[in-house]
Write a structure and sequence with these properties.
- By secondary structure, this protein is an alpha/beta fold.
- The protein contains 10 helices and 14 strands.
- The strands form 3 sheets. The chain has an 8-stranded parallel barrel with strand order 7-8-9-10-11-12-13-14, surrounded by 7 helices. A 4-stranded antiparallel sheet has the order 2-3-1-4, with helices on one face. A two-stranded antiparallel sheet has the order 5-6.
- The longest helix has 17 residues.
- The two termini are 32 Å apart.
- The structure holds phosphoenolpyruvate (PEP) and manganese (II) ion.
- The site of manganese (II) ion has 5 residues, from loops.
Length: 334
């Protein structure tokens, strides 16, 4: 259930009400929409409760009996788009955010060269994995901490932010030292202890859709993070498993408008993992932006065929440049 409070209710009065509701046995999360405070009762509501009673509480303007299980991620709780601010960068709510870089950080020289190329063409967030979730234990697993050092230095040298995957809740603190955005990968989308750990972090989270996750599953995963107090989540459609085997995954473009209608959180698309074949990255990147995505995350490498992971889906600097030229005009259509 969501309680919309009267505009400009003083913070002390909101805290008092929050305490009172907590004392009554509810778990209460606080939000705000255009100076209007909002309280979400995320736990403790059952069918026996007389909703009308809440109208009599002080400072309550109106009540929404939340219909979605993902209350905090829903538009009912937060009708307008969430805009995530990191320094002078902003993600969501009209801006176009491009994250680009190699699948893995391979060496200092490789990630510095990559950062230079992608930033020249307009990417503002450098991607690169240092802890890699590989299908085979015998494949390159990433450089670990030193990879994060290279990634962070390369990003700073080119005035970029950086994003990297955290695979284990024990590593959250380590990743926080180096990256601006914590990535939770598709395989970990329902690793609930990891979701709780990144939920306690101050860093924004890039949450990738699981291989067989429904929209509901993805939004419930976001809810885990939100319920721990971290409001800054970017949802990412990165393709799902279907009966089609020609492509690596099936990129679900419908996820973009659907997720954006259900949730206020920014939605980006990963065409690289979505299709897995480099020649199909451009049309899918265009489709994602035309469908209303807030940005893209794309794998780019100075010499794609030599990439240590995901070479087949990694595009060249020239290919990336050609995609970047088209995106602003597509974004304007939405
Ligand atoms: C990645 O971004 O390199 C990655 C492993 O992504 P996903 O979790 O979507 O497979
Ligand atoms: Mn990859």
């Amino acid at each position: 259930m969501i309680l919309n409070l009267i505009k400009n209710t003083p913070p002390s009065a909101i805290s008092e009400l929050q305490q009172r509701l907590t004392f009554m046995g509810f778990t209460v999360m606080r939000g705000e929409e255009n100076n209007t405070p909002v309280l979400a009762l995320v736990k403790g509501i059952d069918k026996t409760i007389d909703i009308e009673k809440f109208n009599q509480l002080p400072h309550v303007e109106s009540i929404i009996p939340a219909t979605d299980k993902y209350i905090l991620a829903s538009r009912q709780f937060h009708p307008s788009d969430t805009q995530i601010k990191i320094g002078s960068h902003s993600i969501g709510s009209g801006s176009l955010t491009i994250m680009a870089g190699s699948c893995s950080v391979e060496s200092e020289e490789q990630i510095f060269t990559t950062a230079k190329i992608v930033s020249q063409h307009g990417a503002t967030i450098l991607r690169g994995g240092a802890f890699k979730p590989r299908t085979s234990p015998y494949d390159f697993q990433g450089l670990g901490e030193i990879g994060l050092v290279y990634l962070s230095d390369a990003a700073k040298a080119h005035n970029m932010l950086c994003v990297s995957e955290v695979m284990d809740s024990a590593d959250v603190e380590l990743l926080e030292k180096y990256v601006d955005i914590l990535q939770v990968g598709a395989r970990n989308m329902q690793n609930f202890s990891l979701l709780k750990a990144v939920g306690r972090s101050q860093k924004p989270v890039l949450l990738k859709r699981g291989l067989s996750a429904t929209y509901h599953d993805l939004l419930m995963a976001a809810e885990y993070i939100l319920s721990e107090g971290n409001p800054n989540i970017i949802l990412c459609e990165r393709g799902i498993r279907t009966y089609e085997t020609f492509t690596r995954n099936t990129l679900d473009i419908a996820a973009v408008p659907v997720l954006k209608s259900l949730s206020h959180l920014p939605v980006i698309v990963d065409p690289s993992h979505g299709v897995g074949i480099r020649e199909f990255i451009s049309p899918l990147a265009y489709a994602a932006i035309a469908a209303g995505a807030d940005g893209l995350i794309i794998e780019v490498h100075p010499t794609p065929d030599k990439a240590l992971s995901d070479a087949k889906q990694t595009i060249s600097p020239e290919h990336f440049a050609s995609i970047m030229k088209v995106l602003p005009s597509l974004k304007q259509l939405t």
